[in-house]
Amino acid sequence: MKTLSLFPLPVVLFPGTVLPLQIFELRYRRLVKECLADNAPFVLLHARNAAQPDIDFYPIGTSAMIVDWHPLPNQMIGIQVQGIERVRVSDSVPQSDGLLKGDVEPLVAFQYQDQDSASARLSAISAHLQQHSLLSFDASRINIDTADTFSFQLASLLPFSGANQQRLLEIDSPLERLELIATLLEEF
Length: 188
What we know:
- By secondary structure, this protein is α+β, with helices and mostly antiparallel strands.
- The protein folds into 2 domains: 2-106, LON domain-like (Archaeosine Trna-guanine Transglycosylase, Chain: A, domain 4, Roll), CATH 2.30.130; 115-185, Methane Monooxygenase Hydroxylase, Chain G, domain 1 (Up-down Bundle).
- The protein is 32% helix and 31% strand.
- The chain has helices spanning 26-38, 115-130, 147-157, 162-170, 174-185, and strands spanning 2-9, 18-23, 42-46, 60-72, 76-94, 100-106.
- It has a 5-stranded mixed barrel with strand order 1-3-4-5-6.
- It is elongated, with a radius of gyration of 18 Å.
């Protein structure tokens, strides 16, 4: 278990996806400086309540690395972060400047017991998703090895609510995640 800086925001970051952020609070400018100096990750957590993000956030989030940064006017910093892996946070503690630190453990990657059955299920889900008017992809390029990455990319691109994106992030199985995406897409 590692202790990392926490950044609760009313957004969800998925592993393998990139998110631009504008940093203006002193505590998060410190986070950026420390992460850049140490080449260290931090954890982006989805805040349930945007008015109180430091108090009310989900314990499952995504570790993130800063992949690019640039100064902005008014002493702000523009950064691009890339999601690395899903993590669970426990025991968050505020520092003197309000920056939260927490104990972080990675969530274990999902392993399929029956590869053939999982592949058949993935083919059926992919074929169903490919029929939706919002989507355009080649279902034949999706396999069990790429389903996790594909499901995270898809979840980040579709116009789901923050609560639904959090539900998708918390699902261990890429196939179950894709099935929930298909269910959520029925609303569109």
